[in-house]
Amino acid sequence: MEAARELRFKVSGMHCAACAATVQRAIEARPGVSSAAVSVTDGTATVTGIDLEAETLVRAVRDRGFDAEPVTDTVAPADLRSDIEIRQARQERQWRLRAVVALGLWAPMAVLHWLVHEPWVDWVLLCGATVVLATAGSGFYRSAAAAARRRSTNMDTLIALGATTAYVFSVVVLAAGVLGTTGLAAEQPLYFSEAAALLGLISLGHWLEARATAKAGSAVRELLELQPEHAEVVGPDGTVTTIASSEIEPGARLLIRPGARVAVDGDVVEGSSEIDESLVTGESMPVLRQVGDHVVAGSMNTTGRLIVTATVDGRHTTVARIAEIVQRAQASKADIQRLADRVCAVFVPAVLVIAVATFAGWWLAGDLPRGVIATVTVLIISCPCALGLATPMAVMVGAGAASRRGILIKSAVAFEQAGVAAHVIFDKTGTLTTGAPAITDVQATGSLTSGELLQLAAAVEAPSEHPVGRAIVAEAAKRGLAVAAVSDFTAIPGHGVRGTVDGRLIEVGRGNGDATCTVLLDGLRIGSLTVSDRLRDDAARAVQRLRAMGLSVTMLTGDRPAVAAAIGRELGLADKDIVAGATPESKTAFVSNRPEKTVMVGDGINDAAALAAADLGIAMASGTNVAIESADVVIPGRHVTAVPDTILLARSTLATIRQNLFFAFIYNVVAIPVAALGLLGTTGPLVAAAAMGLSDLTVIGNALRLKRRLKHLGDER
Q1: 430 contacts 622 by C-beta, under 8 angstroms
Q2: Which of 119, 182, 566, 649 shows its CA 20 to 30 Å from the CA of 520?
Q3: CATH classification of 228-316, choosing from 3.40.50.300, 2.70.150.10, 3.30.230.10, 3.40.190.10?
Q4: Contacts of 20 by beta carbon, 8 Å cutoff, 6+ apart
C-alpha cells in the first residue's frame, strides 16, 4: 500500500471561516483524502492522503468557486511573512473599500429618503442602490453565483438574495407608481436605502472581521519576524558579506554580533555570549552559549561576538518549523467545530426553506408587502457567519498564545483533549528530573574523609563514559579536589571500573541497598557513593499546580522502587501515585488502560509508544525526535510547569469555543422567529444587517478577550 503523503496549496477567494470550511469539505470529499486543514488567515490548504493528485484537488476547490495552486517548494520565512501580510492587507483593503462606498452612498440616501419628499428622490435612491449593488455587492454575487452553478448554497447566497429581493421589490413598487398601477404597489415603502445599508453594514462587519482575524493570528507573523531577513557570512579568507537568510546553506560560517538575532540554527565555533531564547523556547533567562553549544534561529545575542556554523539551510530553521506547526494548529478543526460545520452545511438550505415559508405565510395572510420585508429580514439575519468563526478564532488565539510561551500545540483536537484531561502521567528521567545523575551522598569508612574517598573514586572513573562515572568526576571537580592519574584502567560491564592509582588498586562497583556504588581499596571496602537524578527546579510546583486544578498525577518510571519512592516524596506523591520498574511495554499498557482522559508527559525513545497511546501526548523539547514526533504537544525542555500552563490554555480556549458556539446558536434561534413574524417592522432588513454584524463582533470580541487573558496565564511558573 502506498504511504500517505502531504500536499500543500495556496487558496484564493476565501474571506471568512465559512469559506475555509467550504473548501475543506470539498477537498475531503475527494477519494484518497484522509484529512485537510484550510486556513483563511494565510490562505493555505494542507491535504494528507493516499494517491493524491494535485490537479484533482485544485479542480475540487475551483468547483466551489475558489482558486488553488500547488505549493511545491518550501517558502522562506521572510517570503511567507510577506505573503501573509500582503494577503491580509488586500483582504482588509477590499472590505474597507466596499464598506466605505456602500455606507458613503447610503448616508445621503437615508437623508433624502427620510427628509425630502419629492418625486425625483426615488430615482436618486434607485441610482445609489444600483451603484452599491454593483460595487459592494459584487463579491457577494460572485460567491453566490459560483455556489449556484454547482447546485449549492453558501452564506453569501442569503446576503445576495436578501439585498436583491429588497432592491427588486422597490423597483417594482417604483415602476408601478410611475405606470399608475393600483393594488400591490399602492403606497408601499421603497427599500433602496436599506438594500445599500445592509450591504454596507455587512461589508463593514467583514472589514472588522478581517482586521480582528489578522490581529488574532499575529502569532505566525511574529514568529517569522524572529528570523532576520539577512545574515553576515564569513568567507574562507575572513571577509564578511551580507546575504539573504533564505540563501544560507549548511556549513556556512555566520557572524552574530551583539544585539543581533541568530539567522539559522547552528553550532558555536568561536566566541561566547549569553543568548536570549525566550521568544523561541520560553526560557525566561539568557543562557550561556560557547564553543560546541547549539544555538537556534530567532534567539537574540546579548553581549558577545559569535561565529556560528549553520547546521540547516535558511528555509528549514527552528523558527520556520515552529511557525508551520502553529499554522497547522490554527487551520485544524476540533471535533466540536466539525459538528458546527455539519450544522452550517444544512443551515443555509434550511433558512431558504424558512424564507419561502415566511413569504407564503404572509401572502396567505393577505399582507404580501410585509411578507417580502419579513422574508428579506430572515435571509439577512440568519447568516451563520458567527457559527463559522466560533472555533477558528479561539483556536487561532490559543495556538498563538501557546507558541509565545514555547508551547507547540499541533492541532485543535489537542486543545480539546487537554481541556478535558483528568489524569496526568509523568515519565521520571529527563522529564521530572534533569536526566543528569549527581552525587547526593558520600559515606567514607575508617580514617578516610569523604573528600579523600571521592578523590580516589574520581581518579579511577576519570576515563569512564558511564553517566555515574561522569557524575563522580563532576562532583570532585565541583569540590576543587585534585585527581591523580590512573593506570591499568578496566571497565567491567555490569559491575563497574577498576584501575591503579598511586600504586593501589581502586575499584568502584555496583552498590547494594540505598548506595549506588561501593568503593574498594586493594579489595577492602572503604566507603560508598550514592548517585541520584535530581528533580527539575519547577517539577514539584508543576505537580502541585496540576493537583490544585483537580487533576490526578502519577509518576511512571523504569527505576528501582527505592529510587522512585525518594523522588516521589520530593514531589509530594503518595505511594499509590508511583509506578516503578516499568518497561516501555508496561508504560504503554498502563496509559492505555486508564478510564479517564489521560495526558502522558515524556522525553525519551521508550516514551514514544506511551505518548501515542495517551489521549494527549506531551513531549519535552529537550527529548528525542521520536518522542517529539509521537506527541500532540511539545513544551520547553526546562519548564515542567509548561504542562499545567498547557492545560490552563486549553481549558480557557475550550471554554471560549463553547461560549462562541452558544452566542452563535442562540442568536439564530432567537433572531429567525423574530424576523419571520415581522416583529422588526419595516426597518427589519436594516436591523437584521446590524444584528448579523453584531453577532460576528461578539464572537470576535470574545476571542480577543481570550487573547488578553492568556497573556497573563501561568505567569507564576
Answers
A1: yes
A2: 566
A3: 2.70.150.10
A4: 14, 38, 39, 40, 331, 388, 392
Residue 198 to residues 91, 94, 99, 340, Cα–Cα distance (Å)? 20, 17, 10, 26
Residues 6+ apart with CB under 8 A from 638: 281, 283, 536, 622
**Which helix (H) or strand (E) segment is 81 a member of?**
helix 77-115
The set of cell numbers assigned to 430 is 529527563
Could you give phi then psi for residue 3, rounded to 5 degrees?
A: -70, 150
Detail the DSSP E strand segments found in 134-173: none
User: Could you tell me where the beta strands, DSSP code E, fall in 174-239?
Assistant: 230-234
Distance of CA 16 to the CA centre of its chain: 18
Q: How far is CA 715 from the centre of its chain?
A: 19
Sheet holding 496-501, edge to edge: 433-444, 524-535, 517-521, 504-510, 496-501, 487-492
Question: Is residue 624 pLDDT above 60, yes or no?
Answer: no
Supply 588's cell numbers. Answer: 504503554
Q: What is the pLDDT of residues 403-415, one digit of tens each?
A: 778 788 877 788 8
Which residues are the active-site residues?
427
d(CA 389, CA 664): 9
Check if the beta carbon of residue 255 is closer than 8 Å to that of residue 236. no
pLDDT band at 573 (very low <50, low <70, confident <90, very high): very high
Model confidence at 564, pLDDT cuts 50, 70, 90, reads: confident
Q: Which amino acid is at 9?
A: F
Question: Could you report the per-residue pLDDT of 581-595, keeping only the tens digit for each?
Answer: 887 788 888 988 888
Q: What is the DSSP letter of 51?
A: S
C-alpha grid cell for residue 509?
Answer: 562497583
Q: How many CA atoms lie within 13 A of 510 on its CB side?
A: 5
CATH code that applies to domain 5-73: 3.30.70.100
CA 690, 691, 696: angle at the middle one, nearest 5?
A: 100
**Where along the chain do the CATH 3.30.70.100 domains lie?**
5-73
Summarize the chain as % helix, strand, coil (round to 5). Answer: 55, 20, 25
What stretch(es) of the chain map to CATH 3.40.1110.10? 436-535
Decide if 231 contacts 254 (C-beta within 8 A).
yes
Question: Would you state the cell numbers that stand for residue 242, as one nine-digit string?
Answer: 551580507
> What secondary structure does DSSP assign to 335-353, as a single string?
HHHHHHHHHHHHHHHHHHH
Listed residue (247, 246, 248, 280) closest to 261, CA to CA: 280
Q: Tell me if 101 sits within 8 A of 132, measured CB to CB.
A: yes
Q: What is the CA radius of gyration of the chain?
A: 33
What is the third-level CATH fold of 436-535? Calcium-transporting ATPase, cytoplasmic domain N (3.40.1110)
Question: Which grid coordinates are listed for 438?
Answer: 549527581
